[in-house]
Structure formats: C-alpha cells, structure tokens
Amino acid sequence: MNDDQVTVLREAVDRNFKSQVACTTELVRFASLRRQESAAQDFVAEGYALTNADEQLDVLRECHQQVHGKTLAGRYGAGTTDARFFGLYA
Questions:
Q1: Strand partners, 44
Q2: Which of 40, 41, 44, 70 has a CA that sits 20 to 30 A from residue 78's CA?
C-alpha cells in the first residue's frame, strides 16, 4: 500500500466507526421476527484465512495503538464473511 492508500484507510476507519459497530451489533442480535426475511446471521459464509496481509495488519496495529494506547492482541477466530459479497447463495 502506498501512503495515500494508508491515509484513506485510516480516515475510513475513523469515520463513524463506533456507530457502525453499534449498528452491526444490533443487527445480528435478533433473528427475524416475521420469518419473512433472512436474519443477518444467514448471510455469513464459510471461513477464510488472512494471508499476505503484513502491510494491512501493520496499519491496523498502528491505528489500534493510537486509538487505545496499547498493543493489539492477536487472536484466532471463525474468520467468516458476508456470503452476499461472493454471490454464493444468490
């Protein structure tokens, strides 16, 4: 990534991050009430492995350090993504 791309990424993360997290948290908290629409959880697809992302992870670590004042802790997770992105179930 070049410096301009890093700047754009940092600005995108900074803008309304807290409100987006709150919205997403609210979305996945409850299943469909009418059963006429899909619950947000239904769009989660197969897991993935993050590879060849050293530069992106460095930006994430630096941003976390600046925002929280501490080192980003590593963790392993399910690694799922939105199935609609790949058109897997369309």
A1: 82
A2: 70
Task: Look up residue 62 and give its two tokens.
Answer: 């630096």
- Report residue 38 as tokens: 């899909």
Residue positions counted in the chain: 90
- Contact between 48 and 81 under an 8 Å Cβ cutoff? The reply is yes
Separation between Cα atoms, residue 52 and residue 67, nearest integer Å = 25
| Structural domain boundaries in the chain | 3-86
Check whether 17 has a pLDDT greater than 60: yes
- Do 41 and 28 touch, CB atoms closer than 8 A? yes
* Alpha carbons 82 and 63: distance in angstroms, whole number: 24
Q: Supply 74's token pair.
A: 């590593």
Contact 27, 40 (CB under 8 A): yes
